[in-house]
Sequence to fold (750 residues):
Amino acid sequence: MELSIGHLYPDLMNLYGDRGNVIALVRRCEWRGIGVRVLPLGLGETIDLDSVDLLFMGGGQDKEQKLIAEDFRETKGEGIAAGVEDGLPFLAICGAYQLLGHLYETAAGERLRGLGLLDLETRAGKRRMIGNVVAVSGLAGGRSRTLVGFENHSGRTYLGPGVRALAKVEIGYGNNGEDGLEGAVHRNVVGTYLHGSLLPKNPWLADWLITAALRRRYGNVGPLAPLDDRLEETTHASALAHRRPWLGLRWLRSGGAGPRFGPRAAKVAPFCSPML
Amino acid sequence: MRDLLAVWAGRVALRASRRLGYGGSSLPGQVALRIQPAILRRLAGRLRRGAVLITGTNGKTTTAALLAAILEAAGWRLIHNRSGANLIHGLVSAFLEAPTAGRRAPHPDIALLEVDEATVPEAVRELRPVGVVVTNFSRDQLDRFGELDATVSLVARGLDALRGRGFVALNADDPLVAALGRGRPGRVIYYGVAEAPCRAAGEAETREQRHCPACGRELAYRSFYYGHLGRYECPGGDFARPASQVLAREVDLGGPAGASLTVNVEGHGEVPVVLPVPGLYNVYNGLAALTAALQLGVSLPNAAAALARARPCFGRMERIAIGGRELLLALVKNPTGFNQVLLTILGDRPSPGRPRRRFLIAVNDRYADGTDVSWLWDVEFELLARRESEIEGIVVSGLRALDMAVRLKYAGFPMSRVRCVPHLGEALDVAMASGTARGPLYVTPTYTAMLELRDILTRRGYTPPFWKAEETWS
Fold:
């Protein structure tokens, strides 16, 4: 099996380690023997629906968002819209998430029209919303899963009735710091403010995207082969501990040494064998 | 009267905090500022030649240290925030620490101050400097500054506040820095490198957005040196890399010991320079220091000679001997800096004869480190994976050791050679004890991890607290 990941504007939209998400998708395919290639999709390039199985786009500053907004709408919008209706998975972070909505009003008051694929609007606020996030998502069917990440945005996003939230915020601001919601989902499109190492720290979401891409190309492929995710899960769990203050207390009592959030048992974690 | 009181109280606070074993790099300044908010302006008035500010994302500390070495060799009396405390209270503390703070002491010649980018406007207003040096800009602690553009515009505002007085030394090869010189009144001097001496870390290296400051079009590059530094021009002809008045040629990076180059200065001729610090990024720091020294009236041969005798500073490729073993300490704080450190440690080309290298990477996420560790994903750790045969093992440590381990896993580095030891003291023991190689242990900590490590080493008797090494003249 083979997959192609379309990486939209890798040069311009790559704030805060967003490329880590592409690295995670690529590795998790490779480790399972799924062939994978990454197509950079820059300014002026159209999207060929037959050659792309998954789209990714990261965040950018207002300046870069302005630079790509028109190209995103005029050159790529039609292809993306058709793909999305066809089940194409698309992970959009921060600035990309904003441009999938109807409108983004920048801090300077400029109004950037988005693709309108997600029923939402965003306005830049005065205060930046910065910090660690823990949220609970019902995306993966029956069982609700946690998402951990870091947010850093001044845009306040409000969802319309035509879209559902990706997750409920337990710690952090989320879409706007008011309604307790984070991100948005429509078909296989996932928009979120959680940036940087989102997928490596939430491998279940990476696998959800890969599964959606495989199903679109190869039909019902069954569950993915399991991977040794103990390291990722330990990291995820240590980030979750943000919501358990007593772990912070334990950390203080330990004299500030060791992991601030997370079990002291992770001191010499099982996944790391001794150095030669 | 109030000034005297502020200075006196600040110095008492300084002595008290040192007695208690703290470095005291910002508290004394806070005390003095509380008593006399205009204290910085008053203290600056005592300087014979004024102040020089050094700012930018990377290289502030090293550039200031190299410039200090040149000026000290020329016999100048300096005020210098050597410890790297670069917010307003840190600058005040630097004045209080100097023996010249007393009333009868001779006045210092110059204050050499590295300044946090966001502090530049206030520092320029208070100090009215005779010169400002800008090193480079890249993404750094975005959780604090928001976005890079905001940082750049803060520095631009600071330069505007100079109103054409004094000199501005700018890195010609960094378009974000060079753009600050467009249409700027007063003395603007550029420094740069003629030809790139090596390949960049990799094709995938994270680069900043690079667009013409005049028309917004993407800049065309003839070559990249590292990050977004290189030879660039606007395809529409609105902006190009300015000609450097201080230009490095024939750069030989020479591995982790130091670099050598030839510097050509407009109107001063050409001179060979040997730097005590390695890596291309330090070539730029050397050029920046040289540029400022020439502007202050030091001769080119004297400046070049003093550079060769300078010593690397606090945690910047600093060598520490521990019981027959050597530890090389290199602070890392952002992707561009980390890439340069990795490339400098591994060298441009694989060197099969050398002992395999060992690393200790310590990542914290306290405020001074940046609370967001996603920057680790912009570092080209794939370089370590590509050259894993030259690496014996990596110990990851610090509050975010797990995040670092995940990063190495996804970079493709063999996890059988990675060990996760969050506690720094234990990590140091593990890293020092392991391995058969006799080469140095390369330690790359983030800022607070470096301070912690420094404490651990001091307690074990290996290195003096940095403020003791600081009192260079009296």
Observations:
- The domain at 2-218 of chain A is CATH 3.40.50.880 (Rossmann fold).
- Chain A is about 30% helix and 25% strand.
- The longest strand of chain A covers residues 120-137.
- Chain A touches chain B through 50 residues (CB under 8 Å).
